[in-house]
Structure formats: structure tokens, C-alpha cells
Design a protein that fits this description.
The chain has 369 residues and is α+β, with helices and mostly antiparallel strands. The protein has helices spanning 15-23, 43-60, 83-91, 122-143, 192-207, 210-217, 231-235, 237-251, 271-288, 295-317, 323-368; strands spanning 26-39, 65-74, 96-99, 105-107, 109-118, 148-165, 168-185, 258-267. It has a four-stranded antiparallel β-sheet with strand order 7-6-1-8. Strands 2-5 form a two-stranded antiparallel sheet. Strands 3-4 form a two-stranded antiparallel sheet. Helix 2 runs antiparallel to helix 8 (237-251).
Amino acid sequence: MDKLKVIDLLDTVSERDQTKFNNNIRSSLLINTDLNRVDADFEWLEIMEDTIRYLDNILRNPNRFIVNEEEIVKVELARRITVESIRHLSKHTNYIQKIEDNGDVKPSKILNIQKDESYDTYENRLIYTLIENMRNFLEIKKKSLITASSIKDVKKAKFNAKSNIGKEQVFVELNYTSSLIDKKEVQGDRPIEERVNRLDDDISMLMNTDVYKTLRKLHVARVIPPIKKTNVILKNTNFQYAMKLWDYLQNHVADDTKIFKSNKKYEDNGILKEYMNNTFLFDYLAMNTISAIDSNDRKKEVIDEITDNLIQRIVELNVDLPLTELKEKIGDKIAVIKYRNEASLSEIQNAFSNRIKSYLEKVENIKLE
């Protein structure tokens, strides 16, 4: 990376004047920051959208079992005489009213068995509970729906300073404002609000199925963790997706949206103020370039100071070297550098002259032809 040209400004003023200027600075720095950051997570929406069809598959082909309702009724009210009815009558002969001569048995009462299908299975109650959890989770999200992650970061500063070099008085007033406002929309084929409304409709559709309405009417108990790993839950693909959503909702009970707000107003007296004071010196040096007053004298003063510092450094590095030998070494080095510069200049001049001469000769030959 190229060196910043502003650094070269330091060469235009002596270290002594730099020190004087910095020591005489009197400044104040007022800071005002306003930060509002929202990190919204829509993973829940994607998982629910992906799981709806699998829940629909489960409810369209629900797990069920047969319930036998047994009742002792008058024989004329019995809907169906089954093997179980005959077996029961053989054990309860008090229900036999009469035995005909031909051996026919005429009972007064008999066991009536009515077979009904029931949706009240563990797997169905698990799905019922999951749908209830989805509904509750969605209601929480809808109350404070945030449709995108966003950031608002505004920084303001007011810097006032004054200083002097000799009789020259210098003042600066700086108003700084930085503003970052960005909103990161979620990638998708539809806006978040539309997707949430669609999901709401899909959940309502699940709640309108026969299985869900039957279980709700029965006031079945909700399933609580830990979940029983039945064969259906472990091996059925639809239940595998349902359990993925179940686990997610169990681990994300609270709203995952992170909101951070900070607003500060204060007077800075730390490193930031020190940075601003340093830039004050560069501002002064930059503006000083438009003035030619005493520029030659100042340049000479800077050169003298740099030369003195270099000589002092050389002497410090060669303490044991005799003064005469030190002078000779410095003199020889200066001569070499001067000769090198002159030689380089001479080579450039010769090359340039040869090119000009060659060009003129070509022009002359063209004229003769």
C-alpha cells in the first residue's frame, strides 16, 4: 500500500514546532451514537412450511385401533350375535330363558359387542400436540412480526480545538456524521407477511381434519417429552419430518429475534480525542502549504534539524572511531553519492543526444533520396 501523502507534511515542520503545537492544543470532542440492530431468524418459518405436507399425509391416513364396546342387552335388541356372545352365554347360563325340545337355546339377554374405530392413539395425540404447539408459536411470532434483519448505525462527532506556534493562532471546528442504514430481506419467492399468512391457513386446514377435531372433542391429554420411540415414529418418513419440527419447537420456545439498541451522548477524553488532536496538526500543515511566508527559512530549518539528527546518530554508532577518520568516511561517502548522481545525469544526457542525432540523420537521408 502506498504511503499516505499527508505523512510528507511532517517534513515541512521541525520536530520542535510539532511538539510546541501538540503541547498547546486545547480541544473538546462531543460524541453522539445511535445504534439499532435487529437480527431476525426465519428458520422456524422454513421448517414449518416444509413439514405441513407431511403432517397432512399423517392426518389423511391416521393411525387407529378397534374399540370393542360390550353391553348386556335383551336378545331382541342385539344387533349381532358373535362367537364372543355365545361364549359369554355359555358362562352365564342365568341369561338362558328356555331350551327347546330340539335343543335350540332361547336366551333372555345376551352380550352385544359393538366395534368402533378410535383415533385416540399415542401417535395421533403426538401430532395433535404438535399442531397445537405450531399454532401457539405462530401466534407469538405474529404479535411482533419482524420481516427482515436490519441495522441503523449513526455516529456524530463535534470537535473543537485551538493551538499556536509562536504568535500564530490556529482554530478548527469539525462536524462529523456517519450513517449506515441497511435492511436485509429474506430471500424467497414471496414476502414474509404473505408466507406467514399462508402458513396460518395451512395450520387451520390441519385443525379442520376429522382426526384433529375428534381428538379435540375427546379432550385428549397432550403428549409431553420424552417421546416414546414407537415403530411408527421411528420408521415412518412422515413422522420423521414431524419429529424434526417437534425438536425445533422444543428448543426454541422463546422468540429468537435479537434486538440491540444503544444511544449514547458523551464527551470523549480518551484515545479518540488523541487521534483528533493529531489530525489537527495535519490540518494545520496542509493549510500552511498555501502560504509562502518564510517557506524557505522553514525549509532550511527543517533540513538543518534533519542533518543534525543524522550526524548525531552517526556519531553515536561510531563512538570509538577517531574524529579524523570519521570525517574522511563521511566525506568519501558524500563524494561517491555526488559522483553517482552526476554520472547518472550525464548518462541520461548522452542517451538523449544520441537519439536526437540519429533522428536528424534519418530525416537528412530521406531528403537526399
